[in-house]
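Bug #2210: token dump truncated for Filamentation induced by cAMP protein Fic?
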Amino acid sequence: MHYNTGRYEEQIEGYTAFIPACLPYSPDIQYDDSMHLMLSEADRALSGLDVMVDMLPNPDHFIWMLARKEALQSAQIEGTVATFYGILAYEADVSFDDDPNQIREVTNYMKALQTGFERVKNEPITLSLLCDLHRILLTKVRGSKALPGMIRPIQNQIGGDSLYKARYIPPPQENVRFLLNNLENFIAEEKTIPPLIVSALIHGQFKMIHPFLDGNGRIGRLLISLYLCWRQVLAKPTLNLSYYLKRNRSEYYDRLFSLEKNGDLEGWVKFFLQGVIEVSTDSHHLVKKIITLERELVKRVIYENIGGIHGARMIELLFMKTMVTSTDISTHCGVSIQTANNLVRKFEEAGIVKEVTGWKRNRKYLYRDYVKLIAEGTGP
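Reproduced locally. Full output below:
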């Protein structure tokens, strides 16, 4: 079925821009058997993930590690070249091979996600919030001159080296604020359409409006998690949808352009729901692997007597904090620094942790097996 998602308008300069229709589109979205099944499966997968995460030895640590993965993969969709280890090393002030400017693009996304998650606990999703998050996203990185936190005052484009050769030309700047006000109202007031489908609609609409000069893709993907958290579909930002969008990047863009060009709303929504199903299932399997990793490590530490009576507390710490210092170990295990040094040395000799600074003092140790599991799919 063709949906009225907008219209093309020729501009006086000679190029044609797309003016998105206001939400909700007409006619009302039709739920065929396939969409009903996908929506039901996506809801189950997402709710099941929340239950599984709570079974982890330290759920909060996992959630924010997964958020780092989402930040990295969302940035990679836009061409950022960075690694998961580079993010951890940057945060821990340890040397790394990645370009620090590229890493900052990822850590800025993390800051924006954390800020947004905290704010939607007590306030609605507004244009003001999105502008604040955009300002955080583009602080001291490429795009920092693209008016961070400000709605674009000029025409922009996607693809091509000019407006006349662009793949997509969003609405002219004079239409943007009206469309954003409609989007804001739709987010606040829509209660009859299932939240997962609303999240697909608002992401697609935001991408078609393209309200900023840079960072639209990342803010648009951030909006998905924020909306689901605001609607309390997600307790915390555990939806790693950029994993799916990255590995299906061509279809992702094609579906969005088809939404604009052909009014193919059902195709876009089904693609989106398939992503929710796949990444929720992936994260479900990841949680199982981490639970198994912890159980196997406990067995090994007991069997090989690694760390003696403090071995179990050391394991507990490694699932709370992936990169640790002797001070961390001393505090958590309630032992002296000397005992902590001996304890981490035994874990290092057993190949469980790896020293990553090369320093003689203030050394830091990485629990590589945990990081390896989380980082799956973050390569180029």
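Output looks complete on our side. The radius of gyration is 23 Å. Marking as cannot-reproduce; reopen if the truncation happens again.
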